[in-house]
Amino acid sequence: MSSFTSRLPLSRSAIDRDDVSRQRDDLLDELWADASTLVLPLHDGSAPLRTDGSLALVPPFPVDSSVLRVYLGRTLPDERDAGGTPVVAVVVDERTVPGVGEVEWVGLRAVGAALPARDAGIFTEALAMANWHATHRFSPRSGAPTTAARAGWVRIDPTDGKDLFPRTDAAIIVGVTDADDRLLLGANAMWAGKRYSLLAGFVEPGESLEAAVAREVHEESGLRVDQVTYLGSQPWPFPASLMVGFTARVAEGASTQPVPDGQEIIDLRWFSREELAASLDEIGLPGHASIARAIIEQWYGGPIEDGIEW
Questions:
Q1: Residue 296 domain-assigned (yes or no)
Q2: Which residue ranges run through the membrane (predicted)?
Q3: Lowest-pLDDT range, 80-84, 202-206, 262-266?
Q4: Would you state the pLDDT for residue 310?
Q5: Residues ≥6 apart with Cβ < 8 Å to 284
Q6: What is the largest CA-CA distance in the chain?
Q7: d(CA 113, CA 1)
C-alpha cells in the first residue's frame, strides 16, 4: 500500500469478504444461529459507537424475515480478534437493539477517520450495501419489486429471475496546482461559500479517468490542465461512489484565472500554503474521513488544524 493510500481512512479494512460462502442459500440463517457471529446494526445510515470509540458489534438478535441482512465476511486477525469471525450487517427500524448497551449512533463521515481499521472497513462496506439495497428495490428492466439473495449481495428480478448486482459510481477528485504550486479550492453552492474543497465529478460513460479529470476541471473552473497523476482511491458510500484521487497542473501557456461555473461552484481561489493557513478561521475544509482532505494535506505537507468545524 502506498504512503498516500495508507492515509485514506475509508480504504482501510481488516475483513475477508468471503465470496464463496455467499453462494449458500441458508448462510444467513446459519450465522444467525451462531452465537459467535458479530452483527452491526444500521439505522438511517448510522451505526452504534461505544464509549471506547469502537463500533458496537453485537450477537444475533431476533429479527423479522423482512429485515435486510448482508453478510460482510469474516474478520482478519488483529489485536482484538484471532480472525475468522463472521460479520453481518442488519438494517433496523429503530435504535433500540438488544445487547448494544450505552452507545452513540453516529454517521461514517463523522467517525470514519477515528475508527480502528476493522471497524472502518465494516462500516464502509455495510453502509454501501445498505444504500444499494435502498435504491434498488425495483428492477430497472421490468419495474417489478426485487428480492435480496446470496447473503444480501444480489437482488433478483422475479419476472425473469435475472440477478442485479451492486453498482459503484466512479468519480474523480483532483488537486489542481499552478506553476507556483498554489492549490485551487472551490466553494460549492450548497456550502454557502464558506467551505472550500477540491474539484470533483462523476466519470461519464465511455470516458477514461484522466479524461474525466480534464473535463471536470474545465467545466467547473474554465482551466485547462495536464500532468494528470493518479494518487489513490477511496470508497465513499454517500450513496455509492468510489472517489479516485489525482493531481493535475495548469497546462503551460494556459490561463490561470479560474472562472466558477456559477451553478455548482460559486467561488474559486488559489491558495499558497501560507494563505491557506491564514484563512482557516474564515473557511472550512473537507472532513478528515474524505480523500479530499488527504489530497489537500499531502500538498500542504502535513496535517492541518481546523479553524471552522464542518
A1: yes
A2: none
A3: 80-84
A4: 47
A5: 191, 194, 195, 196, 306, 307, 308, 309, 310
A6: 67
A7: 18
CA dist., res. 132 & res. 165, Å (int)? 9
Looking at the structure, do residues 175 and 248 belong to the same domain, yes or no? yes
pTM over 0.90: yes
CATH of the domain at 202: 3.90.79.10
Would you list the DSSP string of 219-260?
HHH---EEEEEEEEEEEETTTTEEEEEEEEEEPTTS------
* Rounded Cα gap, residues 135 and 10, in angstroms: 22
63 within some domain: yes
Q: Where are the alpha helices (DSSP H) in 46-181?
A: 108-111, 117-135
Question: Are 173 and 110 part of one and the same domain?
Answer: no
Final residue of a domain: which of 135, 156, 187? 135
Enter the C-alpha cell of residue 200: 470533483
The residue written with cell numbers 506553476 in the block is: 179
The per-residue pLDDT for range 99-117, each reduced to its tens digit, is 888 999 999 999 999 999 9
Range of the domain at 269: 169-300
Q: How many domains does the chain have?
A: 2
Query: pLDDT of 61-93, one tens digit each?
Result: 999 999 999 999 999 998 778 899 999 999 999
Does residue 152 lie within any of the structural domains? Answer: no
Q: Produce one character per residue of 213-238: b if its CB has 16 or more CB atoms within 10 Å, e if not.
A: bbebbeebbebebeebeebbbbbbbe
Rounded Cα gap, residues 205 and 90, in angstroms: 33
Q: Return the closest-CA partner of residue 87 out of 47, 51, 50.
A: 47
Name 69's Cβ contacts closer than 8 Å, sequence gap at least 6.
28, 32, 63, 88, 89, 90, 91, 151, 152
Domain identity same for 243 and 288: yes
